[in-house]
């Protein structure tokens, strides 16, 4: 049974929603979380993640505050470097082509460190991303690409910790409770209509926080807003983020904003299921392409695989793969780099070919012009700059000479057996378009005024990301704006 009323209602039960619920509860008000999914599938996209979170840190002392369990030996074996506010601003500006909303971006960057500490104080544990964000050089793990910290236990661990914190703080969680509409009048929010246990009921509340994700799991909206072909993309995460929160907000007058034709999308196993599978999590992704090349059905390269660290290219390359004939590509590697492939390459459910000669490998690649593929690889091998040393920890400048599509870094000849190839298609993560919020996470209407009592956080906020995205920012943004939304709603509920 749902309560008849609650001081604050939070729609969604992912990272943004729980951060909002926890921050609201700190004001001593009653908080109800509505989760559309059953408990077994609860937690949204957040649960599918590796839990990687991009945050500012000045060095080991900052990291120690987040990870007090770090041992002296672990610290001695790691070169964590720093990630300054200036670097974070720079990354957000560069990858969004300077379109990111400056006010929201400033909050994201400047609140990232404090918000991580706040989460830690509420029981979320963190660890360094040794496995995926650092390579061992001279006996030490050197971190690269501004992404150093992940939640303990990845996305499942994060959701588990947040759920436990919510329960500890007497926040009620209703599963299989799908919010369908906001109840709103001239004075603002009055409540929310919910489909629960086969019935539609109303929960009264003057403060509703929408944190119900983007519209990536809605094939019709994908085609409508992202464009033709996007109906064919696979959904990497939850099947429940179909744009409900965005639609409810728009129906209440919210201003749509941001990159509605844009999204985060990656290279994802060609034979992965249509929606995410919690038993595999994010492991259908194949993110070591900077160390190899990608070929399409015509046997041709189509993108600079080494344009930047994977953290700054992976989220836009799904779109590029979707645009290839048949919407797929094969990633090709040789023996020299196999040890660098991420853990996700070694799972059972993988579309993979392996052979001891290039000719034999190319014959095994479904739907690829093998003759042309061999010509492409030979031309690529001949173009690799041998005068620059290979170094996976930095943008090493070891590129190619004279190719129509250059590879800018980490270029190695593909000539040492065994050879391996992995088939990928486009996996969509989340959509970039959403609703406008202000610095208090209040939802702004299309005339520019705040809708009293309505807040939003997480994927469904528009204006932060355009075209691309720096890895680890989705969770961080959800936490920062979730906390702000909860704080604003909790404060208002007390007045
Ligand atoms: C495979 C994968 C790996 C990823 N890895 C990372 C990573 O390592 N680091 C990172 O920063 N980001 C990562 N991301 C992106 C990240 O998951 C999102 O940016 C972030 O989790 C969004 O949080 P959120 O709370 O806004 O949405 P979600 O976590 O998706 O939560 C939305 C919630 O709303 C619920 N909901 C939807 N409709 C309704 C409704 N009508 N009524 C009630 N509830 C509703 C959903 O069930 C869900 O609980 C990854 C995503 C995927 C899919």
Describe the structure.
Helices cover 30% and strands 21% of the residues. The protein has 495 residues and is of the alpha/beta class. The strands form 6 sheets. Strands 9-2-1-13-23-22 form a 6-stranded mixed sheet, with helices on both faces. The chain has helices at residues 15-25, 44-48, 60-66, 72-76, 85-95, 102-121, 130-133, 154-168, 219-226, 244-251, 314-322, 335-338, 358-364, 370-383, 473-493; strands at 8-11, 31-34, 52-53, 78-79, 126-128, 134-137, 140-143, 149-151, 172-174, 177-185, 188-196, 199-204, 208-210, 234-235, 256-257, 263-269, 293-295, 329-333, 352-355, 419-431, 434-435, 442-444, 450-456. α1 packs parallel to α8 (154-168), α1 (15-25) runs parallel beside α15 (473-493) and α5 (85-95) packs across α6 (102-121). The protein binds flavin-adenine dinucleotide. The site of flavin-adenine dinucleotide has 45 residues, from α1, α2, β3, β10 and α10.
